[in-house]
Design goal:
InterPro entries: ADH-like_C, ADH-like_N, ER, GroES-like_sf, NAD(P)-bd_dom_sf, Zinc_ADH-like. This protein is α/β, with parallel strands linked by helices. The chain folds into two domains: about 1-125 and about 290-320, Medium-chain alcohol dehydrogenases, catalytic domain (Quinone Oxidoreductase, Chain A, domain 1, Alpha-Beta Complex); about 140-270, 3-Layer(aba) Sandwich (Rossmann fold), CATH 3.40.50.720. Helices cover about 25% and strands about 25% of the residues. It has helices spanning about 45-50, 130-150, 165-180, 190-200, 225-230, 255-260, 275-285, 300-310; strands spanning about 1-5, 20, 30-40, 60-65, 65-70, 75-80, 85, 100, 115, 120-125, 160, 180-185, 205, 215-220, 235-240, 265-270, 295-300, 315-320. Strands 3, 5, 6, 9, 10, 17 and 18 form a seven-stranded mixed beta sheet that branches. Helix 3 links the parallel strand 11 (about 160) and strand 12. Helix 2 (about 130-150) packs across helix 3. The protein binds NADP nicotinamide-adenine-dinucleotide phosphate (NAP).
Amino acid sequence: MLAVQATSLSPSDPLQGLTIGEHPDPQPRDGWVVVTPKVTSLNHHDLWSLRGVGLSADQLPRILGCDAAGLDPDGNEVVVHPIVTSTGWQGPEPLDPRRTLLSEGVDGTFAERLLVPASNLVPKPADLPWEVAAVAPVAWLTAYRMLFTQAGVRPGDLVLVQGSGGGVNSAAIQLASAAGIRVFATSRDAARRDRALALGAERVFEAGARLPEKVDAVIDNVGAATWSHSINVLRPGGTLVTCGATSGDAPTRAELTKVFFRELRVQGSTAGTREELTDLLRFMAHHRIEPVIDTVLPLSQARTGFARLLAGEAFGKIVFTH
Ligand SMILES: NC(=O)c1ccc[n+]([C@@H]2O[C@H](COP(=O)([O-])OP(=O)(O)OC[C@H]3O[C@@H](n4cnc5c(N)ncnc54)[C@H](OP(=O)(O)O)[C@@H]3O)[C@@H](O)[C@H]2O)c1
């Protein structure tokens, strides 16, 4: 079958190990089912994998991709929850210390057929378009958990989203705005700031700009480049939710004095639970949310999408049709 794979790893040149070609079909496994993906979507995570973050040379070749919506063996429309928990795990999936993610410990979604635990399948609401369902499991689920579970923001609260064009960040702007939460957003680029306004941000700012008021929560996955700003803009008792470190994980200052003196909360977040994915899909269908889709490509042309994401050119999600 056709598959998009990591065949070697390079921290400095991630596209070097990207191979699009034939891969053996998945072998049957007890409790696991074969899903036929219809639409999948690209995440920054796939670039991290090619750089060797979360993936090691002894795991290659590995099929990439964490997001998928498709058909189960009975022809039901399903969305795939991307976290594979260890046998017998009962709690929230992101808290399983022995969990893995599709495309890390097991093959991912960028293939004609995908083997996943049957328990990872969530029904796709019938009226939810395939492209919308396919962006939900990683970027949108991550944004959903960050906002509503980890930050616990309510309608009328004010949130700052650091960065505008990314998959998680554009999702956070759209989700928060649909839920009646006020959104400030930053971007390094003027055109992207304008697009954030169109997505529902109340006001937009250059990266690092002084804000006219303190915020209740910050959604941050940029990391080192935005850390101090994220701490500084929080009201006393506010919450910084971090799910990534695109610009590096070692900020110049830890800002510990501000964290304790203003009683700030720093909350990590990773993906989301299967239950949250079900809730998110219902939320998206109910509000008829149209995620920003940057590019739609056939799976065979996935390299173009990877290059676009690597160059930081994408605004919204890059999706692959199968
Ligand atoms: N923990 C989890 O479960 C989880 C889930 C999803 C993603 N993540 C992580 O979150 C990060 C974002 O993922 P994504 O898929 O949304 O990535 P993406 O689409 O590549 O988005 C990158 C974002 O970073 C912003 N950014 C601002 N300053 C930056 C800087 N100095 N350098 C680079 N980017 C900067 C960009 O905003 P502007 O271009 O508008 O400035 C853009 O919004 C990644 O590190 C990813 O690994 C973690």
